[in-house]
């Protein structure tokens, strides 16, 4: 479990693991979600109403500086928020739907092969790798295909063909509001 390892690292560095820090660490590790600071604060406040935002930000800063948590941007799907997860022993890729924001984690041999290939090709020693893949989940692909087909049926000339190009990086990824006649 990552939390036990992090607790040991904190003790080695002489950092006191307060009850509030422990709550935050366990939430980051055990919710199964990628939490931003505000969501982390909301969940932690449910467990300890005395906890404040400053504690959340200071704890995140300390855990990041100590290499115990990773800060992710997850393709900036929700804007400029950053998300946090405990450092896992096994590297993984984040697969993000650019429409609904669903995040999946991919673990597997292909990532290890890519790492070795990069190290070999460039003579580079990789210490840290973060991989993010953006696209559309199966559900959003279906919705997108229906929307594009409806747009073409209504004579919208610039409707790209089904499977057309995704939005440009940084472009909003929310579906447009439907117009009423």
Structure report:
- There is one protein chain.
- The protein is of the alpha+beta class.
- It has a domain at 1-89: Arc Repressor Mutant, subunit A, CATH 1.10.10.
- It is built from six helices and six strands; from the N terminus they run H-H-E-H-H-E-E-E-E-H-E-H.
- It has helices at 2-12, 19-30, 37-47, 53-65, 109-122, 138-153, and strands at residues 35-36, 69-72, 83-86, 93-97, 103-106, 131-135.
- The chain has a three-stranded antiparallel β-sheet with strand order 1-3-2.
- Mean pLDDT is 81; it is low at 167-181.
Defining traits:
181 residues; alpha+beta; Arc Repressor Mutant, subunit A; three-stranded antiparallel sheet; 6 helices; 43% helix; disordered C terminus
- The helical percent reads 40-55%
Please identify the top-level CATH class of the domain at 1-89: Mainly Alpha
Write out the strand line-up for the largest beta sheet, numbering strands in chain order: 1-3-2
Mean of all residue-level pLDDT scores: 81
CATH superfamily of the domain at 1-89: Winged helix-like DNA-binding domain superfamily/Winged helix DNA-binding domain
| β-sheet strand percentage | 5-15%
Q: Radius of gyration in whole Å, from Cα?
A: 21 Å
- Secondary structure category: alpha+beta
Low-confidence stretches: 167-181
Which outline best applies? Answer: flat
List the total number of helices.
6
What is the end-to-end distance? 56 Å
């Amino acid at each position: 479990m990552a939390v036990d390892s992090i607790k040991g690292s904190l003790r080695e560095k002489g950092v006191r693991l307060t009850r509030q820090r422990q709550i935050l660490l366990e939430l980051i590790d055990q919710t199964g979600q990628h939490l931003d600071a505000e969501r982390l604060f909301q969940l932690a406040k449910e467990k300890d109403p005395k906890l404040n935002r400053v504690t959340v930000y200071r704890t995140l800063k300390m855990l990041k500086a100590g290499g115990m948590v990773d800060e992710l941007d997850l393709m900036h799907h929700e804007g400029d928020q950053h998300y946090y997860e405990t450092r896992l022993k096994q590297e993984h890729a984040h697969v993000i739907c650019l429409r609904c924001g669903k995040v999946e984690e991919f673990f597997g041999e292909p990532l290890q092969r890519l790492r070795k290939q990069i190290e070999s090709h460039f003579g580079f020693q990789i210490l840290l790798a973060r991989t993010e893949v953006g696209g559309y989940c199966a559900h959003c692909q279906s919705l997108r295909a229906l929307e594009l087909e409806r747009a073409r049926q209504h004579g919208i000339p610039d409707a790209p063909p089904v499977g057309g190009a995704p939005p440009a990086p940084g472009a909003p990824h929310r579906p447009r509001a439907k117009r009423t006649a």
